[in-house]
Amino acid sequence: MISSIFGKTKPINFIILLGFLFLFYWTVQVYLFETDFSTKQMAVEILVLSILLFSVFIVDFIVNRNKLTGANSYAIFFYTLLFVVFPETLSDSNAILCSLFLLLATRRVLSIKSLKNIRSKAFDATLWVLAASLFYDWAILYMVLVFVTIYIYEPKDIKNWLVILSAGFSFFMITYVVLVLANSSDFLIQHYSFEIDYAAIYAPKWDSSIKVSAYISINLILAFWCFLALGKAGAGKIITIRLVALSFVLGLLLNLLVQTESTYAIMITFFPSVIFICNYIESIKRQNILELALVLSVVVPLLAFLAKLWVG
Predict the structure, then answer these.
(1) pTM of the predicted structure, to 2 decimals
(2) pLDDT tens digits, one per residue of 101-146
(3) Which H helix or E strand runs over 300?
(4) What DSSP letter does each residue of 66-100 carry, written as one string?
(5) Which residues, in sequence order, are CB contacts of 260 under 8 Å at separation 6+?
(6) What distance in Å separates the CA atoms of residue 39 and residue 36, rounded to the nearest whole number?
(7) What does the alpha-carbon distance between residue 102 and residue 154 come to, in Å, rounded to a whole number?
(8) Of 71, 86, 11, 112, whose CA–CA distance to 251 is shortest?
């Protein structure tokens, strides 16, 4: 049943998933976080939700454009389900906004493999990463992804490296001018403090710690499987998967560094995670086993979420 719907690319799949995510977002806000909806707060929530829904389209575009999975909707299917697994992340608007800009950066980074307009793509990717860093200062770590990509594809052209400096200079000059006009010229100095809350790192909540540990373990196993299974798929595909894996590692590091009582940045790792999951799901040839895996991937997170609502 599920495979017959999401095993193909259909417009109805977007309607189903976006409708579900829309309802799930408000359910989480009302029943889990008990959000107080003032007029201003409602406007903020609608804006954040719109960005969240838009990110689903970005994920689908990146996956299809770079052929990271087969011609199906499993990527956006699992991307949506991960919010059910980690509903806490929907309380962190910075995570949602940061994730969007990192997705846009990833889109440009992965497109460098075509070896066309490398400098333009590196420039755009740098701008998107720096934009993401306005929400989490440690998001600037994703510049490593830009550097590694250029090193892999075209390291000898010095202009490819200089364009990163040009993008950085342009971004901070424009940002500073906007901040001066907004009478907030001290924002950059205060924001880019790169502080680490060691108390939050060493004293995580037990339920969150177990869930995140299981999530990381499963993804590491699936990533290892991807490298073994796709080893014969060609150098182009395996390099792309390596960049996706690097993105996952950077996301985990970012999540660790920005971890506080009010931040839930794990969603930054959702995109590389769904790539690992989808490649594994597509390898299941027996229809009954595939259907069982898809059903469990829906039922288990929903039951866990309902249990959380009941306990909370």
Answers:
(1) 0.93
(2) 999 999 999 999 988 999 999 999 999 999 999 999 999 999 999 9
(3) helix 287-311
(4) TT-S-SSSHHHHHHHHHHHH-GGGGG-HHHHHHHH
(5) 197, 200
(6) 10
(7) 22
(8) 86
For residue 5, the number of C-alpha atoms closer than 13 Å in the C-beta half-sphere is: 13
Displacement of CA 164 from its chain's centroid (Å): 22
Residue pair 105/132 in contact by the 8 Å Cβ criterion: yes
At a CB cut-off of 8 Å and minimum separation 6, what does 253 contact? 138, 141
Domain boundaries, the chain: 2-92+197-311, 111-194
Tokens, residue 104? 């846009």
Q: What is the DSSP letter of 154?
A: -
Other CB atoms within a 10 A radius of the CB of residue 221 amount to 12
Q: Which residue has the tokens 């010095």?
A: 158
The model's pLDDT over 1-36, given as tens digits with 9 standing for 90+, comes to 788 888 888 889 999 999 999 999 999 998 888 777
Q: Give the three-class secondary structure for 299.
A: helix
Do 154 and 113 touch, CB atoms closer than 8 A? Answer: no
The residue with tokens 């299809």 is 64
Q: What are the structure tokens assigned to 224, written together?
A: 């290892």
- Give the other-Cβ count within 10 Å of 181's Cβ: 9
Distance CA 245, CA 258 (A): 20
Query: Residue 168 in contact with residue 287, Cβ under 8 Å?
Result: no
Instruction: Give CA–CA dist 271/191, Å, rounded.
Output: 26
